[in-house]
Specification:
The complex is a heterodimer of chains A (99) and B (958). Chain A is built from two helices and five strands; from the N terminus they run αββαβββ. With 99 residues, chain A is of the alpha+beta class. Chain B starts with 6 loop residues before the first helix and ends in a 16-residue tail after the last helix. Chain B has a domain at 104-194. Chain B contains 22 helices and 37 strands. The chains are: A alpha+beta (99), B alpha+beta (958).
């Protein structure tokens, strides 16, 4: 597994219909990689991070052996897909009004 | 007898006196004590002569005594206790005589003697008044006459010796001294009797209740002390004393030595044994049921205060920056195997989610999309027309039918109704010579007053149709039965119409006694102009319409821009095969304005002069004469017409501007001039721009049920160079009776609803192969139709039986969705008005002269979800169907021709048709002509060819 593979994966995701952007952030909410503009990246990074932390703790609280893997948020304009891992979190935005 | 009188004795006599007056207590002490003492004293003086004589005197009247005794004895027999008492009394009485003073003796006086001497007991003498003085002579006479029988015989001596003349006789009431009378031979006592001591009664009355402590009397020794001394015990030796001691019992509780033993109560009952059973004492069986209690809670009150420190406010700020990695750091993170791992693991998750969203939207809510249809016709909501108000003038509406109903274009709640006699043609001609005293009227109603109309508009003849000017609502144009056009101007009365209160109730406006009678009456307004009789219609005007304000028609029939932007032209039609265009404005070569004086002369009725220039000389500026398409058939008798343009629709102008704008841009290269600002432009008609997009073709519905497509633009006859109306472009019979309504859909300009007879159809402009909707004939004659202004698929059809059918072509196309009865008589006219987004009113006039205002329910007001699309699609579908049908017709025609050709070939009548060169030429030429026609049409549409130019058509023949 190399960095090239990561690039490839991200490219594939980007190619999906309606995908507006992606970003990878670390545990401190610092964006590492993003194809959104700077200010939007900052906002998403900071806000989604705190949300995913909250979601993770919620799941842990209910069942300590459980683990949050993935969550999707449907909004009027787009869907936000979040995959929180141990160290890094990946976020993808997809427009809902594709058709 | 001569016993020494002692004070004691006198006192005793006194006592006897007091005794006689019974009940009185003597001041000298209580009688028993006193008598007891006297007794003892008397006892000591036993053997005194008075006592003896007393007893001796008793012996003689013993008979009465015995009587008395026997009586008392009798009493004794019955009750022993009183017997004892009376016995003692008798002894007392006997003894009492002893106590009499020496001068007084007891005497018995018989009742006869009492009468003779006036001493009758209880009459002359009473208990209280018990003494009487009697002369000595009378007594002596009594003794002399009666001798020994006289009661006074024993006292003869004493009477004779008595020194004074009168002797006192005292009545002894209760035989206290054993006889009924006492006689007194002592003058001193007699005096005392005559004047009894007065102190006694006074003391009695005054000191009855006063207690006088008894005063011990001085003791007089009479020898009793010796007896007492004899009785006295005198101790002559000392007393001896003994002491006796009883051993004290020791308490049982402290002496356990006491032995108790069980005793059988049954056996030892007799031995002073009482067993006491326990029992519930009812006396204490009271239970406490209610308890009065009071508790008071005293609030604890505390005062507290604290002080906060108020710090001096300080402006502070911080600035922060989002943390970010440098490129190096990012690159370093990117190579982190954990990150790579994360991306790879979550790849599938993302892919799944993304694909899911594309394949199927799980958040699509079906219900949202379904919603609207439920509320359509047949839905839960009420979909019936509701009666809102109804107007009927008692005086004016009688025997009249409503011919036309128009809403006021700007004022709310104002509606005008024209009434006409419901007469047929024959009746009308019969009555033609009669003078009608009451002119036909248009009534203008206001919703605030359903009793009295706001205005009456007088007309020269029955009005068939009228309309408010859309831009100047105070001007009303009407079409008469006699073919004239009538104009009214109600500008002066606008205030009256607008006034929400009924004017005739505004009595407060006037000082009492000075009311203006006319003010309260609804004013009758005369028309201000009628058209010329010769030049107008010769038949009843059946339809009238103001030409929309955005264009005007020239005398040549060209639609041009209307720069004034107000309605001034009227289009009318009548049975006389004509459609006429009228101009209301003052012609350019205008009549000079009249002076005031002239005006007064000319204008005696107070009619506004708005249309003075038109009165009786008004001519149409454009005539469209309809010719029958083929000679020999009936000419078209127009009844209704419909033009494409509608009031307030500026699409045409916008389109023109756009085109102009583009053109200008092209030609003048940036030197854009706004056409409206063009200084060359004046208000003159001539220079007004021709509007290419206004359709000069219009539809006419005729008396015979035909639908005619006609161009109003006249054509130049090539021979006579005269303008004449072209032949109808197309016509067909569509309905089975006179066309009563020809209405364009408010949503689709090219969709026309035509109704007449028992049928109605929906046509589309320029699709002349057939109707889009052709419903089965109704059971009742149709009188009018009206489109819904807000729902594209809904229209109302009024029928002769007074009912209204509501059609919803989205709901069903074969039958009315709802049929509702409105009136008992035929509904003659429908007019709908959108009052507000929440209210829509349908006015329906009937043949009784009543105007019904019906409220359109929500379901018929509110378009169904996507209704416009649905209706558009429906119409498109139908249009396509028409095209298909036409195609099939052509095919069939071809087939038919082919069949005929084959038939003729088979018959051998004519050889198989081999077209000659000539025929081929003709055919080719006709095809070329068709092409030319088409080309001209295209060029004209593009504006490249002059309108008046006829297409150059080479004759097909020769």
């Amino acid at each position: 597994m190399t960095q090239a593979e990561v690039d490839d994966t991200l490219k594939r995701i980007q190619e999906h219909k309606g995908v507006q952007g992606y970003l990878i952030i670390n545990n401190d909410g610092i964006p590492i990689r993003s194809n959104l503009d700077a200010s939007l990246t900052q906002q998403y990074a900071a806000l989604i991070k705190s949300l995913s932390d909250k979601a993770r703790s919620t799941i842990r609280e209910i069942d300590p052996t459980n683990e949050l893997v993935f969550f999707r948020m449907r909004t009027k304009k787009h869907e936000i897909l979040v995959a929180p891992e141990k160290e890094y979190t990946m976020i993808v935005l997809q427009a809902t009004d594709v058709q | 007898m001569s016993a020494p009188r002692t004070p004691t004795k006198s006192a005793g006599s006194k006592e006897s006196e007091s005794r006689n007056s019974r009940g009185s207590i003597g001041p000298a002490g209580t009688p028993p004590i006193g008598s007891g003492k006297r007794r003892s004293t008397a006892g000591s003086q036993l053997g005194s002569p008075v006592a003896r004589s007393g007893t001796a005197s008793v012996a003689s009247p013993s008979g009465t005594r015995d009587k008395l005794n026997s009586a008392t004895l009798k009493q004794n027999a019955t009750s022993p206790v009183p017997a004892v008492k009376s016995a003692t009394e008798r002894v007392e009485i006997a003894e009492n005589a002893q106590f009499l003073p020496s001068g007084i003796h007891t005497i018995f006086i018989s009742s006869a003697t009492q009468q003779a001497m006036q001493l009758c007991v209880d009459e002359d003498l009473t208990q209280e008044n018990n003494a009487k003085m009697i002369d000595k002579e009378i007594l002596l006479n009594d003794i002399q006459t009666n001798g020994q029988g006289s009661n006074f015989y024993e006292f003869q001596q004493q009477i004779q010796n008595y020194p004074e003349n009168e002797i006192a006789i005292i009545y002894d009431y209760d035989y206290f001294y054993s006889q009924n009378f006492l006689i007194c031979f002592d003058p001193k006592l007699k005096k005392f009797i005559e004047n009894p001591p007065v102190t006694l009664p006074i003391q009695e009355s005054d000191e009855v209740e006063q207690y006088v402590p008894p005063v011990p009397k001085k003791w007089i020794s009479l020898g009793s002390e010796v007896e007492i001394d004899n009785e006295r015990l005198i101790l002559n030796r000392s007393l001896k004393s003994f002491k006796i001691k009883v051993p004290t019992r020791i308490s049982t509780t402290l002496t356990p030595n006491e032995k108790f033993k069980d005793v059988d109560p049954d056996i030892d009952r007799k031995k002073n044994f009482i067993s006491i059973e326990q029992y519930d004492d009812k006396q204490f069986d009271l239970r406490k049921m209610e308890l009065d209690l009071a508790i008071q809670a005293a609030p604890e009150h505390r005062e507290n205060f604290s002080q906060t420190i108020w710090r001096y406010p300080k402006n502070q700020w911080t600035q922060y920056e989002a943390r970010s990695f440098t490129e190096d750091e990012k690159a370093k993170s990117m190579t982190d195997p954990e990150l790579i791992n994360m991306v790879v693991t979550s790849k599938d998750l993302f892919k799944e989610a993304l694909q899911q969203n594309i394949i199927h939207d799980p958040f699509y809510i079906d219900w949202n999309e379904l919603g609207g249809n439920l509320d359509g016709l047949g839905g839960p909501g009420d979909s019936h027309l509701k009666e809102y108000q109804s107007f009927s003038s008692i005086k004016q509406s009688r025997d009249k039918i409503v011919t036309c109903v128009q809403w006021h274009p700007t004022l709310r709640g104002i509606i005008a109704v024209s009434l006409a006699a419901g007469q047929g043609f024959d009746e009308r001609t019969d009555n033609l010579s009669r003078i009608n005293t009451s002119p036909p009227l248009i009534l203008i109603w206001s919703f605030v007053d359903p009793i009295q109309p706001k205005l009456y508009l007088e007309a020269p003849d029955d009005i068939q149709c009228f309309q408010f000017s859309p831009t100047d609502p105070h001007i009303i144009a009407g079409g008469c039965v006699n073919g004239q056009i009538v104009m009214w101007d109600i500008k002066e009365y606008e205030e009256r119409i607008r006034n929400p209160r009924g004017d005739h109730r505004d009595k407060d406006l006037f000082i009492p006694g000075f009311e203006d009678e006319n003010f309260f009456q609804t004013p009758h307004i005369r028309f201000c102009a009628v058209s010329s009789i010769e030049h107008g219609h010769s038949e009843p005007i059946t339809d009238l319409q103001w030409i929309p304000d955005h264009y005007q028609v020239t005398a040549q029939g060209l639609p041009t821009e209307n720069l004034a932007m107000n309605c001034s032209q009227i289009m009318t039609c009548a049975f006389d095969n004509q459609v006429l265009f009228w101009e209301t404005r003052v012609p350019r070569a205008g009549v000079k304005p009249l002076s005031k004086k002239e005006r007064e002369i000319i204008n005696p009725m107070g009619v506004p002069l708005t249309f003075k220039h038109l009165d009786l000389i008004w001519k149409p500026f454009l005539r469209v004469t309809l010719q029958s398409p083929e000679t020999g058939t009936v000419e078209f008798a127009p009844r209704k017409f419909s033009i494409r343009e509608t009031q307030g629709d500026r699409d045409v102008l916008n389109q023109e501007d756009k085109e102009l704008f583009e053109k200008k841009k092209d030609t003048s290269l940036g030197q854009f001039v706004n056409p409206l600002d063009d200084p060359n432009k004046t208000l003159s008609q001539a220079k007004a721009k021709v509007l290419q997009n206004v359709d000069t073709f219009f539809y006419i519905g005729t008396e015979d049920g035909q639908l005619v497509y006609q161009d109003w633009m006249p054509q130049k006859d090539q021979d006579s160079t005269k303008f004449f109306t072209p032949k109808a472009a197309w016509s067909t019979i569509v309905v089975d009776g006179p066309v009563v309504a020809l209405k364009r859909s408010p949503f689709f300009k090219d969709v026309i609803l035509v109704a007449g007879g028992w049928m109605f159809q929906i046509w589309r402009e320029k699709i002349h192969s057939g109707s889009l909707l052709h419903a089965a004939p109704l059971k009742e004659k149709i009188t009018d139709v009206e489109w819904s202004p807000t729902r594209p698929g809904v229209f109302y059809i009024s029928k002769q039986n007074g009912s209204i059918d509501i059609w919803d072509i989205i709901d069903r196309t074969h039958d009315a969705s709802i049929s509702q009865s409105i009136s008992s008589s035929s509904v003659t006219f429908l007019s709908i008005k959108v009052i507000s987004s929440k209210q829509q009113l349908l006015a329906a006039g009937d043949s009784n002269g009543t105007l019904h205002i019906l409220e359109v329910p929500w379901a018929l007001r509110q378009p169904v979800n996507q209704e416009l699309n649905l209706v558009t699609n429906y119409l498109e579908r139908e249009t396509e169907r028409r095209a298909f049908v036409k195609h099939r017709w052509d095919l069939r025609e071809e087939e038919k021709r082919e069949k005929e050709r084959l038939a003729t070939m088979k018959a051998g009548i004519a050889p198989s048709h081999i077209s000659t060169q000539e025929e081929i030429d003709i055919r080719m030429k006709s095809e070329y002509n068709e092409f030319l026609q088409f080309e001209f049409g295209v060029l004209r549409e593009m504006g490249l060819r002059d309108e008046n130019e006829a297409p150059t058509v080479t004759p097909a023949a020769t």
